[in-house]
Amino acid sequence: EPEVTQTPSHQVTQMGQEVILRCVPISNHLYFYWYRQILGQKVEFLVSFYNNEISEKSEIFDDQFSVERPDGSNFTLKIRSTKLEDSAMYFCASSDGQGYYGYTFGSGTRLTVV
Amino acid sequence: GNSVTQMEGPVTLSEEAFLTINCTYTATGYPSLFWYVQYPGEGLQLLLKATKADDKGSNKGFEATYRKETTSFHLEKGSVQVSDSAVYFCALSDLNTNAGKSTFGDGTTLTVKP
User: What is d(CA B9, CA B87) in angstroms, rounded to the nearest whole number?
Assistant: First the structure.
């Protein structure tokens, strides 16, 4: 069964450093998303991406965040200057039907900011 | 805006007990409804879905029926197993929302004891 692949599985970074979280969505999917989960509970929307541009972003997705699809297969989330409160699990998801039929999620990247 | 309210957990059951996890929603349009499951240390997996009123989603013995009149999508299973121990998330995706952003409930932790 097709999978969404995320790397790394765990990233530890110092406050103020830049991090890039990487995702390889399912190849024939057109809609891509980043969510984050703090303390293993609340799943929060960050951004959606379609046709090489951001479709929607949440209030969490401020100027320190950016997304790219640099080569037609990878989908990256960059955090420019990490803060302690950015520590969370970050999940990439993709969908072939605008999210209407559900997502396929990756296994996540655990980001720890120290 | 859209919102999802789930029954608070944690829920602890004995093996072979009947499971109900309540979920109600508020949406401005005509959403699809989902249940996702997250096993310890893993990402979210789509468990079942329903895209219109009165649809029943089912998978792995779990069922949920889209009730528009009560704006509910309760998850049920007739006989739970230890392997069903996980966090369960109710979610909706609204076509009126650009690119199909999903809104998640807070999650309900289920523990099944032998």
Answer: 9
A31 touches chain B (CB under 8 A): yes
pLDDT, tens digit, for every residue of B69-110?
999 999 999 999 999 999 999 999 977 666 678 999 999 999
Q: Looking at the partner chain, which of B100, B106, B107 has a beta carbon nearest the beta carbon of A100?
A: B100
pLDDT digits (tens, 9 = 90+) for A19-65: 999 999 998 898 999 999 987 678 999 999 988 899 999 999 999 99
Q: What is the pLDDT confidence band of residue B8, given thresholds at 50, 70 and 90? A: confident
Rg (CA), chain B: 14
Angstrom distances, CA of residue A113 to CA of A79, B9, B43, B79:
11, 29, 20, 42
Chain B CB contacts of A105 below 8 Å:
36, 43-45
Residue B101 and residue A48: Cβ atoms within 8 Å? yes
Interchain contact, A56 vs B106, CB within 8 Å: no
- Integer angstrom CA distances of residue B91 from A8, A82, B32, B45, B107: 27, 29, 8, 12, 10
Encoded tokens for A8: 């790394």
